Amino acid sequence: MKTPKRLPAILLALTVAAGLSVGCTRTEDPPKESQPVTTESQAPSQKETAENQEPEEPALREITDMAGRRVEVPGEIDSVFSASPVSAIFLYMIAPDKLLGWNYDLNDTEKSIILEEYQSLPNFGMGDAINYEAVIAAGPTIAVNCGTINDAMISDCDAMSERLGIPVVAVDSQLNHSAEAFRFMGELLGAEEQGEALAAYAEKTFGDIQSLADIPEEKRVRVYYGNGEDSLETAPAGSSHAQILDAINAINVAELELGDGSRVQISAEQLLAWDPDVIIVNGEPKADMSGSAAAEAILKNPDYASLKAVQELKVYGTPNAPFSWVDRPPGPNRLIGMRWFSALIYPEFINCDVKEEVHEFFDLFYHVDLTDEQMEKLLKGTL
To answer: CB-based burial of residue 180 (10 Å sphere; 0-12 exposed, 13-18 middle, 19+ buried)?
Structure first.
């Protein structure tokens, strides 16, 4: 039989044909592209991605300060260096959390009112004694310089900006520009609501004493304002340190040339010759001498016994907590001084509940609710 001998050959041919059929079927599908395999360790992390990105520059905005200077400041202002004690007071009133530090070490009188969390802020100095290295190390966003706007002040701002490497903003601290200063600083620091509240108070204060401008000349009170341990350093008419007398329409007996400074030393004979109706004395903060102590010294001094103010017991010490209500420093602290001073010398022309005004002012400006004991000590100048 020949048939069995051909069977293996036929089976072999069928097997080869099946193999070729399978091979053709596979090549009809397009070949898949090889995909790179990425392990978790090879994938860039979010942290690495963030580190590789360029840091975003803070948004800047251009403002015109109160000296008319165009200044670029960051959109967000975190901390501010105060170029002077007046600047520090403005900042504490408007946005205390942005105050970088003080310009001197606070004394016990100031600490009796300033909130505890701000009492230990660093002292960066002032004037020629500013510790620029410490300021730079602290990294303020901007600096604020509050004062009388003039060429010298503008030059100081420019020089300080170059030295610190940050924008320095000029603010007009004149008493009759208080409302504008509060609004400007409120907008600058993102504290518009507080700035507006302080501005509104300042406007109301000036509005309430507007009637004093109509006082007949013969009813105007002649005032001597004294500083220092002997109270013989005075602020002449027209001085930035005597602005409160002009604001309440008092007559400043010190009609003197200003000279190089804002205050002038006089003699006891000069004070006797002026013979003012009222004497207001500030004392000497550097010697820890209060206004009330300075007033008591004048009343007890036999050399001044002939003075009209002494004979009528119209010698008063300025309340001085946390800062003098009349001067030193010549900042917005004087707004409550206007209330107190005008009610003191013109009680028949102005209706003012001094204690109520003091409560409102200290709550709004110094962020403190006074106790009755504090109020009594404040008005006596013994706090």
So the answer is: middle
pLDDT digit string, tens, across residues 139-183? 999 999 999 999 999 999 999 999 999 999 999 999 999 999 999
List, for residues 311-366, the tens digit of each pLDDT value.
Answer: 999 999 999 999 999 998 999 999 999 999 999 999 999 988 999 999 999 999 99
pLDDT at 263: 84
Map 32-100 to HEC letters.
CCCCCCCCCCCCCCHHHHHHHCCCCCCCEEEEECCCCCEEEEECCCCCEEECCHHHHHHHHHHCHHHEC
Secondary structure of residue 294 in the 3-state scheme: helix
Spell out the residues 6+ positions from residue 190 whose beta carbon is closer than 8 angstroms to its own.
Answer: 76, 77, 95
Q: Is 26 exposed, middle or buried (0-12, 13-18, 19+ CB in 10 A)?
A: exposed
Q: What does the block give as tokens for 227?
A: 């500083």
CA distances to 109, 144, 306, 307, 373 from 67, in Å: 33, 12, 47, 44, 42
Percent helix, strand and coil across the chain, each to the nearest 5: 50, 15, 40
Write out the E strands in 257-310: 264-265, 278-281
Would you give the distance in Å from CA 287 to the centre of its chain? 26
Containing 291, the helix (H) or strand (E) segment is: helix 291-300
**pLDDT, mean over the chain:** 87
